[in-house]
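Hello forum,

I keep getting stuck at the same step: I have a sequence, I want structure tokens, and every attempt I make locally crashes halfway through. Rather than fight my setup again tonight, could one of you with a working pipeline run this one for me? It's a single chain of 449 residues.
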Amino acid sequence: MSTSTPTSNAPVGGVAPTGLALEPGLPICQTDLPLDWYQPELRPYAEEYLALPDRTPESVLPWLDGYVRPAMEHFGDELLLLAHFYMGGEIVKLVERYGGSVSDSYALALQARAQPEKKVIVESAVHFMAESVALLANEDQAVWITNPKAGCTMEMLAKDYMVDPAADMLLERYGDELMVVAYMNTSGRIKALAGRTGGAVCTSSNAHLVVDWARQQNKKLFFVPDQHLGINTAARLGMDLERLVTLPDPRRGAFRLEDVDGGLAALDQAEMLLWGSECGVHTVFSADMVRWWQARGWRVLVHPESKLEVVELADGVGSTNFLWNEVVQAKPGDRLVIGTEGHFVRNARREGKRRGFEVRHLAEAGTGHAASGCGCATMSRNDPPHLAGILDLLRKDEAPDICRVLAGDSVDERTGRRDRLDNTERAELVRHARASLERMIEITEAARG
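Reply #2:
Ran it on my machine without issues. Output:
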């Protein structure tokens, strides 16, 4: 199972340029998914893909060109393809090959707003990212996702039906004193909750800016959903970590405020409350792993969704754009260890091999061999058949409606069942969710000067 790299000169906060050639003979199949993971309309494309003699560019690209090129000619400049850095290398390179954009969640969310001439936007990433694009899009811009079952485990542990009861209890106790800060890795429904409380969205790259702004409003903060990003952000800002309270793990079911460690007294004295979920990809890392690599002369870089003890020991901490820029700036002979999603690290490893430096995955500490690392399994549900199928069906005006992303949509990542709001409910959600996104943008751009 091999992957390829995104281009090496993607700017901070921007998108990767296009035109990077695929290496001859490089296998680009990330995985062959069971056919029942495909929407019925896309299964014929999956069957054709599986029937190809191999997964090399020599076989895949002519097949893919047969579907993608006609769609590109049909839509012209109105078509925009998007992908996230965490996607498997074959999708990253394919989206680039066809003139698309690859970046982190902040930059991707701004793409529709920044390019009003793009009317058909197709994203190969997870659902919350596509919905964030839709929240900021104009009414004449349609957002599509190649696979609606591509989700985020963090977002899955902060569904509105999980968060809303806790938020209702907190609002009943604290009223207007409570402000919600919603991580980008949440649905539009949670972003709307942030908007209704005067709060904002944040990403891993700007969480410190948003939380610092929120503190200046003299509110009690409710940070949803990643407890570790919340803790790391508080530590970065010099907040008193004794005044952070983590709510119970949502996987344990419903809870009362009295069930929180320390009870109501702890809640009342807290400056920031943290939703009790985390990213399984980043919580596999330990302080011992960091020490193991550093003792051997490697530079360790980690994502801030990792645990505090990992972040405190690392040589560098930051978002996917930060991590990729460290790869871009690496020199021959450098040795980098990266603690983040496995596909990203494999892409970085291949870039290092091309340019003469070494990259390893943090979780490989002590193993003695190159491991793939922990990858985001749900994001991996996007692959060449999904890309070919959705573009071909869009050209024919036959795309499955389940792949259309409207603000407020909630999709069950296991069954594909979608709950869609009516027009009135959607308009209300967009008003609040967009307000929380606009606050994030305003805070972030003001800091950039």
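Residues 35-152+379-416 form a domain with the Rossmann fold fold (CATH 3.40.50.10800). If your local run keeps crashing, start a new thread with the error log.
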